[in-house]
Design a protein that fits this description.
Helix content: 40-55%
Order of helices and strands: EHHEHEHEHHEEHH
Strand order of the largest sheet: 3-4-2-1-5-6
CATH topology: Undecaprenyl pyrophosphate synthetase
CATH superfamily: Decaprenyl diphosphate synthase-like
Shape: globular
C-alpha cells in the first residue's frame, strides 16, 4: 500500500459503483440477499472514511434504473433494505453533520418509500459536512433527459431561446449541479464500465476499477484509490507544461 503524505491531493467529490454483492454471497454459498446486507456494512465504512478525510461529497450508485430488470424477489428485497437503512442510518448521519441527498426518479418508488426519503433528507438538510448523494432509480441518460426537458419548457414559455442554451445552462438543471464535479469514480467488482452512472458529471473524472467485491471494500481499499488519484496529473485538456505553469 502506498504511503500517504500530508501533501496528498484529495478529490473533492468521489462517486462509487458498489458492485459485487451478489457474487460475494454466491462465492460463500449464500443467497444474493446476504451480500447486499453485508454491502451496507461496507457503505458505512466508506461514508465514515470519506467524512474523516473531509471529502466534500460522496455519491453512491444504490439502485440504477436498469436494476428493475433483476429478479422480482431481489428487487423487492433491495427496496425493503433501502427502506430499512434509511430509517436506521439517518440519525447517525445527522449526528456526524452529514447531509443526505437522494437523486433519481423517485416517482418509481412506493409512496411509503418516497415519504421516507423526504423525511430523511429533511432531518439532515442543514448539515454542513460531507454531502452523501444516494442515486436510487437513477440513470445518467435519464438525468440528461430530465434536464433537457426543463430547458425545453422554458423555451416553450418564451423565457429562453435555443441560442441561450449552453453547457452551463444545462448543467444548472442537472442533478448535483451545486456540488464540485466528480473528481474520482471508483467501481468495485472487476467490471470496467460506468453503467449509465453520472454520464454528464463524470466528464473529467479519474476512473478507478478494482477487482475487490463491494462487501470486502474497506478503508485500506479506499485509501489505495485515493493514492492512485493523488498520483494523477489532471490536465483538463491542457498540456503538462500548462498545468505545471499554473
Amino acid at each position: 500500500m502506498t504511503t500517504v503524505t500530508e501533501q496528498q491531493t484529495l478529490p473533492r467529490h468521489v462517486a462509487i459503483i458498489m458492485d459485487g454483492n451478489g457474487r460475494w454471497a454466491e462465492s460463500k454459498g449464500k443467497h444474493r440477499v446476504f451480500g447486499h446486507k453485508h454491502g451496507v456494512k461496507s457503505l458505512r465504512k466508506a461514508i465514515s472514511f470519506a467524512n474523516e478525510k473531509q471529502i466534500q461529497a460522496l455519491t453512491i450508485y444504490a439502485f440504477s434504473s436498469e436494476n428493475w430488470k433483476r429478479p422480482k424477489k431481489e428487487v423487492n428485497m433491495l427496496m425493503e433494505l433501502f427502506f430499512t437503512v434509511l430509517g436506521s442510518e439517518v440519525k447517525k448521519l445527522h449526528k456526524h453533520n452529514i447531509k443526505l441527498n437522494i437523486i433519481g426518479e423517485l416517482s418509481g418508488f412506493s409512496e411509503r418509500l418516497q415519504k421516507k426519503v423526504l423525511q430523511a433528507q429533511k432531518i439532515t438538510e442543514h448539515n454542513s459536512g460531507l454531502v452523501l448523494n444516494v442515486a436510487a432509480n437513477y440513470g445518467g441518460r435519464w438525468d440528461i433527459t430530465q434536464a433537457s426537458k426543463q430547458l425545453a419548457i422554458l423555451v416553450e414559455k418564451g423565457e429562453l431561446t435555443p441560442d441561450e442554451i449552453t453547457e452551463e445552462r444545462l448543467n444548472d438543471v442537472m442533478n448535483l449541479h451545486s456540488l464540485p464535479a466528480v473528481d474520482l469514480m471508483i467501481r468495485t467488482g472487476g467490471d470496467h464500465r460506468i453503467s449509465n452512472f453520472l454520464l454528464w458529471q463524470l466528464a473529467y473524472a479519474e476512473l478507478y476499477f478494482t477487482d475487490i467485491l463491494w462487501p470486502d471494500f474497506d478503508a485500506e481499499a479506499f485509501q489505495d484509490a485515493l493514492d492512485v488519484f493523488s498520483g494523477k496529473e489532471r490536465r483538463f485538456g491542457q498540456t503538462s507544461e500548462q498545468v505545471t505553469a499554473r
